[in-house]
Input
Amino acid sequence: MPFLKPMQFLGIGIFCLSIGSTKSFSQQASTNSLVIQHVNVITMNDSNSVIPNASVYIAHHQIVSINGAYPKNATVVDGKGKWLMPGLIDMHVHTPTDAGPFGPKYPTQAATLFFDLQDQMLLYIANGVTTIFELSARAEHFGQRNEMAKGAVIGPRMALAAMIDGGTGQGRKVNTPEDGRQAVRSAKAEGYEFIKVYAYLNPATYFAIIEESQKQGLKVIGHIPDSFKGKLKEAFVPGFGMVAHAEELSNYAKDYSEIEAQQMASLLKQNGTWLSPTLITMESIAAQVKSLAPLKALPSLAYVHPLLQSKWLTANKYNKMSSPENIAHFEQYTQFNLQLVRACAAAGVPIVAGTDAGTSGVIAGFSMPDELALLVKAGLSPQAAIASATKLPAQWLGMDKQVGSIEKGKLADLILLDDNPLNDIQNMSKIAGVFVNGQWVEKNKLQKMLQNLAAKNHATKDQYDWKTITSPKK
Ligand SMILES: [Zn+2]
Output
């Protein structure tokens, strides 16, 4: 039976209209001089130390000191009984960008469908996600990143990977090693920091892309192209830095056995390849193949742009595949994915948290606590699950001097929690507030903005029928 990969359904550049925004972050307290008092600090430093009842002083976007001196006029945030941890890094997202027009265009015509960036980024911030890794980055994402860098929008830091595919696939399409190498050099020249390889590359081109990426100092993450069918091992060449989904391996399973999972884990281990399993993606897809009722009932669906809600609920390609065979097939994938995570963890393969947010049913930000819970379900300790979304991805992205742990001199991307996530990973949802680049945004503010967004989405939903918008009458 054909297995359809999540990305095949994503489509590059999903669409929406913009109508005002939830902007109001600019009224937040100044980013200067802030002290969190009496807080338990989950440092995620090299020794994983937890510092009880500490004061953390933040100024100019940075952690200036822990239990050090701070000015008397610093704004005080009471951390008594609370837990401070590093902001989360989602290693696999797809943020929609402005798009359209659909149908005939004329040369000077710009996009006709606009996403409000603050509305999109609020979902990450509200869940403590302060860095995202965009895995099919386009020119528009540089613009989005700049909006956040200049403070017009509060949102996560963005790392950008250019997607390179083959055949009639997605993104930059190359089918010869020469073209593959040139695509890498072009991507680097355009400012991309990472390369994502995709499903329809032929082996020779895939090898050339990875080799050229190494030469150019770009790390490679991606899918294992279908052209490696029957020869999975050959895809593991030096420089293939990270597998982007557990099902990239599950695709190659024959009997879904423990031994098979271990063999796959050892391929990654021997090659120094990391794994971003995106368990929530397959979990969500499997659920959608079965029924759309759970997605419809998801409270956080209200925060998704109405056009995407319409797409997910009326043109859901996973649900269209619904059959007893497919339901069983996807169930098996979710189970084997958990086994793979266990096997990889046992083999010492670094595992990082990614959600594939933007894929049908996978909601930006809100899918992150779900992913962490699934990693724990797979067998990781809460500590290891948190490391998978903080210090480990920071290391892979080359940002570990800036983010990923709470240490003097690091950027102040932090989450304040009401309860200890090391005891129970479900406590990741008990957010009292988030520090985004040193800016304190408390729970009430986040909740109010989410409510406003849900109301706005609801009020405008009639304008966003997926079919009418994406297939206009000529
Ligand atoms: Zn993806």
The chain has one domain: 6-27+87-398. The pocket of zinc ion is lined by residues 7, 92, 94, 135, 356 (CB under 6 Å). Residues 117 and 144 are 7 Å apart (CA to CA). The mean pLDDT is 93.
